[in-house]
Structures are given as structure tokens and as C-alpha cells.
Amino acid sequence: MSKSLLCPCEDVTTAEVAHAIGRGYRDLESLKRFTGFGTGMCQGKQCLHAVARFVESQTGCTPDQLQPFTPRPPLFPTELSQWAALGFDVARAPAAGVLAPDETFPALRAPQPVQSKARVVIIGGGIMGLSLAWNLAQRGERDVVVLERGYLCAGASGRNGGGIRAQWGTPTLITLARRSLELMSRFARDMGINVWFRRGGYLFLAKSAEVAKKLERSAALHNRHGVPTQLLTPDGARDVVPHLTMQGVQAAAWNPDDAVIFPWAFLWGYARQAAALGVAVEPFTRVQGFEQRDGRVTKVVTDRGDIACETVVLAAGAWSPEVAKLAGVRLPNEPHRHEICSTEPLKPFLGPLVSVLDSGVYFSQSMRGELVGGMGHPQEPAGMNLSSTASFLQRYAQAVTEQLPGLGTLKVLRQWAGPYDVTPDNSPILGPTPGLPNLLQLSGFVGHGFMMAPAVTERMAQWMVSGESDELFERFALQRFAEGRLEREDMVIG
Fold first, then answer.
1. What phi-psi label fits residue 328: left (phi over 0), alpha (psi between -120 and 50 degrees) or beta?
2. Plot region of 446 (φ>0 → left; ψ -120 to 50 → alpha; else → beta)
3. Is the separation of the CB atoms in 98 and 387 below 8 Å?
4. What does the domain layout of the chain look like in residue ranges?
5. What element of type H or E holds 265?
6. Per-residue confidence band for 97, with pLDDT thresholds at 50, 70 and 90
7. pTM of the complete model beyond 0.70
8. Terminus-to-terminus CA distance in the chain, angstroms?
């Protein structure tokens, strides 16, 4: 029985699903991520019912509680060349498509209320919130509650491509990224979970003279701060990835120390180790408001009860502005849709993550062999939109096959979207809120929060526990926007 296959595409057995259930993953979205069922060629068409019936038998859940995971387009695996041949006007912003459902999973909320008091409440169970919780617990602050409105990996942290790079445009972000790379490289050993960390580098391509100049300036900055970025000619870039056509490319930059990681396991590692140290991680819990007294937040109001607290950390990424409004705080962050897709697996052929900075397209090969990549659209207005569009697949397929024509027969298996958390200067918002000093901000990382989280939360936890000053929380304070003191960053993909 333990070797019975529930998902033939991904060889997921009853034993593996039972193991995931034992770890606390009982909703189908989480089980899909933890086991990989439903991510193969059939995209769950053959295995969803079998897994749901097995979960019912093991947990006693009702069919109403076992809501199916969100189906991802395309309906059938389709070759990149077919998507590239679509007739959309790629200069126009894509149509909105169908909005993703509001994944709150009320039937999966724990029947008991949340604890009534905690020293620290962290709103957001993505990479920022979970890594901060673990770093606080490591430093002795264990009376911490993390609130997540959905399942772990439901937000932007579970929707990104997993890239980690030190190629940034300011000394501060370069320093943070280098530290994150260091911490991520030993994460599997330190936290006891395989995150498939792979150093293949980032290869940036520039088509215009303006972007080529940007790469030249950035490489010089990187070298001054210990990042071994190399400027390459088109032929030199082709030595790194032999299959590239380099069509229209004027220059390239490559840092071999950059890497790719598997995002979901990274979140699970932080969540598991934080919980082992006494942190309460509460998924399927929605924040509904705040109580305030004398210029401080005194309670967080949720749909599972109120939590009296001393400090609140808002780490909800692109959802942070709507949560901040509940406390009467206006944040300048705006969500921007960033679409992404994954293909059928190939044998390893692509070392680095490749990005054409002019268009914002990027793609890399996962440890499973899939080509994973995405891009935004410069004309698309801001808005929380997690739907998927065919026009994205056309633009992406055209951009990828222009540089790697041989991938035209590669089939796209699934696509999805996540929100970039964009601030006016493309830099984060950190530290106290003016007028509410115990409401701490931890958001606004555009598309690079995942890769910055280990270093940023390490410093934030130290700052919170020790009370020592740290220029990071002055440089990126919310009040800088009112003061006209922007911290501009332009090495943003997408």
C-alpha cells in the first residue's frame, strides 16, 4: 500500500502523501507543493481525485474542506513555438483575464482561537515573516505569532523563480545580497531541509546602448564591493551559454557566484525551525483590524480572535498597504503583476539564470530540469491581479526562442502570476511607522524580497532584540518619502 502511486506523472506514492499529512499539510494546495503531485504533464487531471480521497480517509476531512487546488493554464501542454506565433499586439498591456480566487480556505482554519497575547505579532507568513520569526527565536525572543491568511507559500514567496543575485545597483543592496547568498548556501545544512541551492550565476544581456552602459557601471560597483561580476562581449556570453544566439545583444554581465534555489522548501525550513523554537505559525488566519491606545498598537484583531501585543511587524509584501489601512497608515507600495511559467523537464543544459534587461525576461533551469521564467509588462497598470494571460506566453515564448531557438518544441506545462511589491524608488520600507512606533514595516522589496530576506531579517531581529541602532532602518524608513529622500535602485528585472 505504501508504494501505491497516487500521481503517476511525478511518482508520488501514498506513503509520501501520508508523510506530508503527518507534517501538518492537509489542504490540497500545500500537499501539491510538498509532494509535487499535480505538477507533471497532466497537471492533476489524473491524480487530484485519488489524492483527495486518500486525504479524506487519513484525516476525516469532508469534501467541502478539501477544496481543489487552483487549476493553472494552459489546459494542455503546448509548445513554445505555438505560443510565440499568437497574434497579440505585444506592445499593449494584456487583458486582465480571470482573477484568481480569494484563497482564504475558511473550512481549514483551526477550530480553536489564536493565543490571546504575544510579545511580537508578525503579519505575513511569507519568506520575510517566517525568517524574521526564526531569527527572533534564535536570539531568545520566542513569544512570537506569525499570521498567514492562506497556506504557506500562497503569496509572492511561493510564486517566484527562486533566483538569488548579488548584482545590484547600490552598495547597501549588494551587501545584503552577498550575506543572503552566504546564508542560503548553508541553509540545507543549518536547517535540515534540501532547498536545491545551485550556483550557476546570473547572465545579464543588454540590447541597447543605455542598458549596456548600466551593466558597465554596475560591474564596476560590484567589483569594488567584492562581487566578481565580469563584463562580456556577445561571444564571451556565448561561452557561458553556448546555445544563445545573442541576437541584438551588445554586451553582457555575469557573476558566477549568483544562484537559484527552490522557494517552497526555503519557506518550510524557516517555518519548521521557528515552530521548533516555540513560535506559533498560524495559517488560514485573516487580520481584520487593530486596536490602538496612546499612539501604539495594542491588539491585532483576527477572524480567530484578538491578540494583545507589544510589537507588530507588517510583512505582508504587496498586501501590506491594505493591512496598513486597517491601522490608518498609508503605504506607497503598489502591486504589479509579474507572470511566470514552467515547462516540461529537459536534461541539464543551462548553467546560469539568463535575463535580457531591456525586456525584463528571465529564465533558468531548475534542478528538476524545467525551464522556469517570466516577465512583466511595462504598460500594465498597478493592481492586485494574480490571473494569467495568453499574451504573456506569446511575449515570453518570443523572447526565449529568440535567444534559444531550439526550445521551440519545449512544452509549457503551467503558468501563474505573483505580485511585485513596488515602491516609488524600488527600495524597501523598513522600521517604525511614524505615529505608531511599535508597528514595524518590512515590505516594498519589488521582485527581490525572497533573495534579500535572510540578510534583512537577520539584521532586523538583532535590531529589535538588542535595541542597537542600525542605519538600515533609517535609510529605508517610511518617512523618507515624505522627506523626498529616495533610495533609487534600477537593477530590477521585469
1. left
2. left
3. yes
4. 5-69, 106-159+264-333+425-483
5. helix 263-276
6. low
7. yes
8. 47
